[in-house]
Amino acid sequence: MNNKVTSMIFGALAVFLPLCANAAECDFQKEVGTCSGSIQILSSGGSKPSYSAEIRVTSSAPTCSKVEYYLDNTPNVTVLKSSNSEDESLFGTKPISKNNVTVRKCTAYASVGDAPKQQSSAADKYFEDQMACMRRHSAYVKQQQKNHQGWIGLMEYCP
């Protein structure tokens, strides 16, 4: 009976967690690690001397990250606060394609407002680990869908 209740709770959280997530508050003074950034060209156009492109900037971190990239030799930064991707507009003096847009760096930052960690029981630790794994799995699925790749299910990803 206890396993059924636990399974139902985790199942409900996996479904409703993305629906009730609030915008993250980020501390961009505290780096917590690196992430993987990518740029997708959604559309491009223009003519000499002015070209433009709509791009999607994506980070492997679910929230609170910065993706640094270059358009030719011009540095750009996209700050991702409450999601792991955002659409942007780029402008340049040459036609814009994936060949002249390169990701330099992706940095993950701390979230603000997280309660200080207190001594926790083994059950609390298990619940925290599962929630963190579900967030990572959500970012993983989005990245795999973007790249048109297969993905593994939540139960395989978060044992």
UniProtKB/TrEMBL annotation:
Keywords: Plasmid, Signal. The keyword Signal applies. This is Secreted protein. Residues 1-23 form the signal peptide. It comes from Rhizobium phaseoli.
